[in-house]
Amino acid sequence: MAEATVKFDKAVNTEDALVVCCFPSVGMVSSVVAHFLIDHLDLEFIGGVTHSQLPALCLVQDGAPYPPIRAYAGAPICKVDDCQSVILIMSELVVPEPLVHDIVTALFDWSKESGTRKGVLIDAFARKGMKGGLNGQEPVVEYEDTEGIDVVGIGTTEDMRKMLEDMKILPLEQGVIKGMTGVMLGEGRRRGLDILSLMVEADPRYPDARAAAIMIEHLNTLLPTIDLDHEPLVIEAERIEEQIRSMIEGAEHSAVPASSSMLYG
Question: Which of 2, 20, 62, 117 has the smallest CB count inside 10 Å?
Fold first, then answer.
């Protein structure tokens, strides 16, 4: 039986690293955030995750090919206790449901061997009354809807729930989290790992740069990356959004026909 394989550069320092995961979310929030962090934390490509049942394609940016599930690393300023480096794992690919558990297990086994410290999962949920547009893999959450863009969080341990409190992020009271984020949260709690998920309210009808900007502002408490006011940050998120669209243009037509294997753009 085919298995997922993590192929990251072994020379990269992973001891006590903060791992940030950005898999497809409502309004393309996670992709915009991931590309922003790559640019502003000066993260370098270090490899990817392979599986024989993933779509046979690569993404191209600035003339270079990249695997659909890939990783970047660097050593920026980090406000998480004892954080030595940051590793970003991302994809524009909606991982097919039959592969999720296998890929999560491979990533967690790699994390254990590598000595990484904590994990942050970036996700989004659809505004009340709207469908998420991720073919059934979007989160279903109950939250207090305010006039602004709401952010909620989930922590696998008491330490992570305390971190959410310190960040002034309300805990998600009730919901169903699916796909990569859902399985990583469930397996993370089972293994006693320190993982938190940050989830922002987004408009699923189009890439939501404003929701991405709100998420980046919250991440700034963990990884100081921005010196932009809110409106310039939205403009920056919109610019990155256009880069992502350009990079994956046509890729969705190259993926396997199953809707759960789509690449969004």
Answer: 62
Tell me the HSE value of 123 on the side-chain side, using a 13 A CA sphere: 29
Phi, psi of 75 (to 5 degrees): -130, 65
Say which CATH topology domain 13-248 has. Answer: Rossmann fold (3.40.50)
Interhelix angle 97-114/179-191, rounded to 10 degrees, is 40
Which of 14-28, 95-109, 115-129, 238-252 is the least confident region? 238-252
Given a cut of 70, whether residue 258 has pLDDT beyond it is: no
Say which residue the tokens 């350009």 belong to: 246
Model pLDDT, residue 261: 41
Bridge pairing between strands 69-74 and 44-50? antiparallel
| 124/204 Cα distance (integer angstroms) | 9
Look at 2 and 195; give whichever has higher pLDDT: 195
